[in-house]
Design brief:
globular, 7 strands, about 50% helix, about 190 residues, alpha/beta, two-stranded antiparallel sheet, 5-stranded parallel sheet
Amino acid sequence: MKPRLHKTVMMVGMMGAGKSAVGKELAHVLGVPFVDSDAEIERAANATIAEIFSRDGEAFFRDKEARVIARLIEGEPCVLSVGGGAFLRADTREKVSELGVSVWLKADLDTLWSRVKRKDTRPLLRTPNPRQTLADLMSAREPSYAQADLIVATTADYAIETTALKVVEALAERPDVLEKLESPPA
């Protein structure tokens, strides 16, 4: 039997940490829906994140993102993947801590860079030195990420399934979040 999830699990961390990939696997393991806040925002705006950034700016995007996350965290328990900057807002961190649980997928710079360097879908990395920009973002964001309810390390050699199981192990330490259902006697 699958364990029962009582609260939404919000996957936080840097771009390239695996929030979406691990989140989808985690949702599968737990038997709950997977929701990507960026996809929800794109659907509502009928535009890509890069287009929203370009047209309306980052501040506008972050406000929309906070509203979408607040709505999603209040819904039925699911696994929620959010953009790398979402957890920087104190009001978002408080709302998630109150109604859900945040999991920081912590990866080192080399792992992150190896995963994002060939993608052109990252508006914040459209700079003359994107690796340095990634390092600067990581340095600025880690104090906020460190406030996550749970921290799970991920490395380049971990399979998605391995990282998802490490998240399940971390969640199992929180009976308010994850109820382990015992198998019925044979």
